Amino acid sequence: MVISSMLRNIKDTGHPLRVRIWSLLSTNVWHLGFSDLAMVLSTGINLPLHRVFKASNGWLRWFKGGIIVQSLFEAIWLAFWVSWPFLFGWTWTAQVFLTLHTLTFFMKMHSYAFYNGYLSETLRRLSALDNPSQESRASAYKYPSPRSPLKESLDQTLTSDRDKEKQEQTLKSLREDLAFELTSPLGQVTYPNNLTLYNYVDYVLCPTLCYELEYPRTEGVRFMELFSKVLAIFGCIFLLIVVSEDFILPVMLESAFRLENVQILSEAGLILAESVSQLLFPFMVTFLLVFLVIFEYVLGAMAEITCFADRHFYSDWWNSTEVAGLSSLENGTFQSTTSSVGTYIVLHDPISHGKWLPLSPF
């Protein structure tokens, strides 16, 4: 396909490649690069915010005002960066790239913020167990019955001892569970020791949308594997440009010219139907190339750079028989930490009298 395209371009223009799509991609590239870098760096505000939430004992603690402050920051951040490329009238390619990258980092930022917020409240609960209040936790005392005072007194003593032992066992189990939640599955990182710049930068570079205290790692970077991934990225981009130049752009330009001069509605419908039928195969090839360059090569290269061990970024979505299964198999970065690592969904449960509880890991 590439050789045929190059020969046809040489015959028509005298050059092996056309540059119409390339000029579209290269427009605003410096503005896009600096804006994208600023967008990524701006997510680092989460780190000092959560240090404040953790240290605060007033309204800024997470389950009081902290979650509101974080939500407002995320809403303002998202609105600003989504509108940024449209304010300057960038090309649609630059607008799409920055918008999609913004949504990706919005999900990463949200996962980091709310998981650490939940851990801050877990740490408070554990600290409260280490420093119990002066009030007694024993069950209420029952006065002996006048019919058998000695027997009732002995039964009350035994019951009180059993309740006290059960309560101590429950308290010990709760303490162990809370301490387990504050420790990474590999046991090398604990909260709040993860609230460091190094940990946040590492999470930003890791190809995952689910924040965890620690990720499984490979032994080191395989440079030949990294080189092959980078080379494949540029190869796929080259193929995308060739497909767009030869099979998509000419059809769209021709259909736009024909639609400008048509006056009959039925003829316009025929032109649109013909254009769509001609674009079906090129669009399918473009979709497959985009999927390949993102989920196989870009994420694979980032995983190799960060020594990220979990490379299960997608499953065999092409064998899906329903739309729900397609979404879960096509994108594995939402659940791609490991099977043993859970990310807590924290919801407000009205039945628990205003307490915040982790419902389930996913």
Q: Give a count of the beta strands, DSSP E runs of length 2 or more.
A: 2
Number of helices: 11
Radius of gyration equals 30 Å
Strand percent estimate = under 5%
The major pleated sheet works out as: 2 strands, antiparallel
* N→C terminal distance: 43 Å
- Output mean pLDDT: 79
Element string (H = helix, E = strand): HHHHHHHHHHHEE
Which geometry do the CA atoms define?
A: elongated
Structural class comes to: mainly alpha
Give me the oligomer status. Answer: single chain
Model regions low in confidence, pLDDT < 50 over at least 5 residues:
134-145, 336-362
Strands in their spatial order, largest beta sheet: 1-2
Report the helical percentage.
55-70%
Task: Describe what you observe in this structure.
With 362 residues, this protein is mainly α. Helix content is 66%, strand content 3%. The chain has a two-stranded antiparallel ribbon with strand order 1-2. A hairpin with a 7-residue loop joins strand 1 (344-348) and strand 2. Helix 4 packs parallel to helix 6, helix 6 (92-130) runs antiparallel to helix 7 (149-181) and helix 9 packs antiparallel against helix 10 (265-306). It is elongated, with a radius of gyration of 30 Å. The relative contact order is 0.09. Residues 134-145 and 336-362 have low confidence and may be disordered.
